[in-house]
Amino acid sequence: MKKVLVMFVACLVMAVMTSCGSSHENTPKGVAEAAVKCLSKKDYKGYMNLTNATDQQKEAMAQMLEKVGQQADQKGGMKDYEIVDEDIDEEKGTATVTVKINYENGENEENKMKVVQKDGEWLLSADK
């Protein structure tokens, strides 16, 4: 659960730097950046549309996203972020995007976002 929250916080940081839109680069990095944009704008529906989550998972995810937003607010919000690494396994259709988030209160953290490819489209993995 904590790892999932950390992943969502990472997404939140990246979102502050850009705007959430329906179009994004169809790469693991592009999906991660779009997700962060959505989180920064508290566009949780937009975020969930970037995942492979089932409707049932999306209900639980919405509550978790609210908590992640509150945690980021307690740190003064995101100052900036950086994509540290993008590790893609084309054969398996999976990837991990590592994001470093710097908060206004001086704290920072690195988070790994799991991304999967489904029917040629990269999506955030809803699996733990």
Characterization of the model:
- By secondary structure, this protein is of the alpha+beta class.
- Helices cover 42% and strands 29% of the residues.
- Residues 12-19 have low confidence and may be disordered.
- The chain has one domain: Nuclear Transport Factor 2, Chain: A (Roll).
- The chain is globular, with a radius of gyration of 13 Å.
- It has 4 helices and 4 strands; from the N terminus they run ααααββββ.
- It has helices at residues 2-17, 28-40, 44-48, 55-74, and strands at 78-89, 94-103, 108-118, 121-124.
- α1 crosses α2 (28-40) and α1 (2-17) crosses α4.
- The chain starts with a helix and ends with a strand.
- A 4-stranded antiparallel sheet has the order 1-2-3-4.
Write the layout of secondary structure elements.
Elements: H1 2-17, H2 28-40, H3 44-48, H4 55-74, E1 78-89, E2 94-103, E3 108-118, E4 121-124
Helix pairs in contact: 1-2, 1-4
Tell me the number of strands.
4
Write the H/E string, N to C. Answer: HHHHEEEE
Number of domains: 1
How many strands, what sense, and barrel or not for the largest sheet? Answer: 4 strands, antiparallel
Which structural class do you get from the secondary structure elements?
A: alpha+beta
CATH fold naming: Nuclear Transport Factor 2, Chain: A
Feature tags:
four-stranded antiparallel sheet; 4 strands; 29% strand; 128 residues; alpha+beta; Nuclear Transport Factor 2, Chain: A
